[in-house]
């Protein structure tokens, strides 16, 4: 019997947790940005290679990403980004 796939997700306090389910949002650790998994900007950065993939993090939900100190992506979440920017 094979082990179930484990995913590394970021918790609200910034710690890494292991999960049997993948996250619903992806992000970039250094830039502190999160967005949808189908984000055009993230896919483009991943296709270019480099260190983007090593900085990639995942979250169970949007609330967790925000609690961990990440901001919404302006490309794939423009309304959320505008609201975040207005609150600053």
In summary, what is this structure?
This protein has 88 residues and is of the alpha+beta class. 28% of the residues lie in helices and 25% in strands.
Secondary structure layout plus pairing:
Blueprint (H helix, E strand, L loop, with lengths): L6 E4 L5 E4 L5 E4 L4 E4 L3 H9 L7 E4 L2 H6 L3 E2 L5 H10 L1
Parallel strand pairs: 4-6
Antiparallel strand pairs: 1-2, 3-4, 3-5
Verbal overview:
The chain has 88 residues and is an alpha+beta fold. The protein has helices spanning 40-48, 62-67, 78-87; strands spanning 7-10, 16-19, 25-28, 33-36, 56-59, 71-72. The strands form two sheets. It has a four-stranded mixed β-sheet with strand order 5-3-4-6. Strands 1-2 form a two-stranded antiparallel ribbon. The longest helix is centred in the last third of the chain and has 10 residues, at 78-87.
The value of Rg in angstroms is 13 Å
| Uncertain residue ranges | none
- Report the order of strands and helices: EEEEHEHEH
Helix content: 25-40%
N→C terminal distance: 50 Å
Secondary-structure-derived class: alpha+beta
Q: Given the structure, what is the number of helices?
A: 3
Largest sheet: 4 strands, mixed
Mean pLDDT: 91
């Amino acid at each position: 019997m094979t082990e179930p796939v484990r995913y590394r997700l970021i918790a609200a306090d910034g710690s890494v947790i292991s999960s049997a389910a993948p996250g619903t949002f992806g992000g970039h650790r250094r830039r502190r940005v999160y967005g949808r998994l189908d984000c055009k900007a993230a896919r483009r950065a991943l296709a270019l290679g480099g260190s983007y993939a090593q900085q990639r993090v995942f979250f169970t939900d949007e609330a967790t990403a925000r609690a961990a100190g990440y901001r919404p992506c302006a490309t794939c979440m423009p309304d959320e980004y505008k609201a975040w920017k207005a609150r600053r």
